[in-house]
Design a protein that fits this description.
By secondary structure, the chain is mainly β. Helices cover 10% and strands 46% of the residues. Strands 2, 3, 5, 6 and 8 form a five-stranded antiparallel sheet that branches. The mean pLDDT is 92.
Length: 136
């Protein structure tokens, strides 16, 4: 499962809260992922909040998110480390987004964005852990 996993297809246009598709991560050889939020189009004076939720069966979802990107206001790419090692029951994930708009003009927000993730190889995690120990 080293390929890119799509949580929200690129260039998804949304103007209200919503959920991405259910993604099966049970076949992942490693339970640590690097997720990337890519925002490609916005209008002024609005915010986007994206969280990742987990489920054991793909139907009932935990009330609390596993991880959340920080609130964003601008176009760009934003990384997030998603570590599922402490959540062994999680076999499925999905992204959830909420947005807000304020100020003048239309009250309806609009974002064009997507979220992908890929497994972080174990050897990179080991290298990072070793480097962190030398810095401590």
């Amino acid at each position: 499962m080293n390929n890119e996993i799509i949580l929200i297809p690129a260039k998804t246009v949304a103007s209200a809260k919503g959920d991405g598709p259910v993604v099966d991560v049970s076949g992942a050889s490693n339970r640590v992922f690097l997720a990337t939020l890519g925002i490609t189009k916005i209008i002024e004076q609005e915010s986007l909040d994206v969280s990742i939720y987990g489920s054991a069966d793909g139907a009932a979802w935990d009330a609390k998110s596993l991880a959340a990107f920080r609130q964003e206001f601008y176009t760009g790419e934003y990384p997030l480390l998603l570590d599922l090692t402490a959540h062994p029951a999680v076999k499925f994930v999905r992204a959830h987004w909420e947005m807000a708009r304020w100020g003048r003009g239309t009250e309806t927000p609009m974002f064009e964005f997507g979220v992908t993730m890929r497994e972080v190889p174990p050897e990179i995690l080991k290298e990072a852990a070793a480097e962190a120990k030398t810095l401590a």
